[in-house]
């Protein structure tokens, strides 16, 4: 495993982050395909054995069950100061007023709930899980600054939004002496490259780490076009992200061709492409099998040639913006 700094911060993270949406009791929340605790623990332990120190979850994953499982596993398998725990806030955790969003009240309440579920005194990277148009961004940024100063959070990050929104938040933080975001979780993979228009360039210029989510396009880059899995058949969010061909089939076929020529699984090729794109810091890999994690680790050692990179990118056609809104 290799390690890198998250943007211009001093935080060192593994070049792969384990996305923990796959871990959670299937009867809680909306992820019926998620893994129960006993199966999740095996994969978390495997990730640690591979040198992964970066674990990303969210309060809404399996209605908090993901945080509980990840927190217990990491407490059992690793010293707290050797792992980087990231979680998120925004999604609705209960009905009624203030049950979600990025108000000061919601952030304070949801952070304390996440700390309890994770069984830790602090979050290494606390991220806003999308933009909240109903709350003044000044309120959100000051609240995030306050939880950092209270010692409950070490760094803050953001996830999919328009670049102007992200720039506005950073500008307000800088102007008021508040804590700035050190990372951006972007929807970015071979089937969705709209982030290359502005967001990636902005983050590179500002020294902000990029953490791509869905780097394998919900598995669509890992299997023949048209094949489905239990997750893809029950993943409404994934269907909303990738509901049209728009040149996607040609890209999937290119991945398969290069994988065959390299004698490696398609997942390795698709993930290697992401890791070789600047300014990517660490893609968030979701796994439900040990082989998925093995492929991700192997992808770090797969150096694609410029000719192969060009071949993978050539069929791409512009896509509508996707991923800025959470669908449950």
Characterization of the model:
The chain is an alpha/beta fold. It has helices at 37-49, 65-77, 104-118, 137-149, 163-176, 199-206, 230-233, 236-241, 248-262, 266-275, 290-299, 306-313; strands at 3-5, 12-14, 17-19, 54-56, 84-89, 123-128, 153-159, 181-185, 209-210, 284-286. 39% of the residues lie in helices and 12% in strands. It has a single domain (3-313), classed as Alpha-Beta Barrel (TIM Barrel), CATH 3.20.20.100. Helix 2 crosses helix 3, helix 9 packs antiparallel against helix 12 (306-313) and helix 10 packs across helix 11. The strands form 2 sheets. An 8-stranded parallel beta sheet has the order 9-8-7-6-5-4-3-10, covered by helices on one side. InterPro entries: AKR, AKR_Detox_Biosynth, NAD(P)_OxRdtase_dom_sf, NADP_OxRdtase_dom.
Distance between the termini: 33 Å
Question: How much of the polypeptide forms β-strand, as a percent range?
Answer: 5-15%
Count of individual helical segments: 12
CATH class: Alpha Beta
What's the gyration radius in Å?
19 Å
CATH arch. level architecture: Alpha-Beta Barrel
In CATH, what is the homologous superfamily?
Answer: NADP-dependent oxidoreductase domain
What level of helicity do the residues show? 25-40%
Order of helices and strands, N to C?
EEEHEHEHEHEHEHEHHHHEHH
Helix/sheet category: alpha/beta
Uncertain segments of ≥5 residues (pLDDT<50)?
Answer: none
Q: What's the average pLDDT? A: 93
Strand elements, count? 10
CATH topology: TIM Barrel
Keywords: Oxidoreductase
GO molecular function: oxidoreductase activity
Pfam families: Aldo_ket_red (PF00248)
Domain NADP-dependent oxidoreductase: 16-314
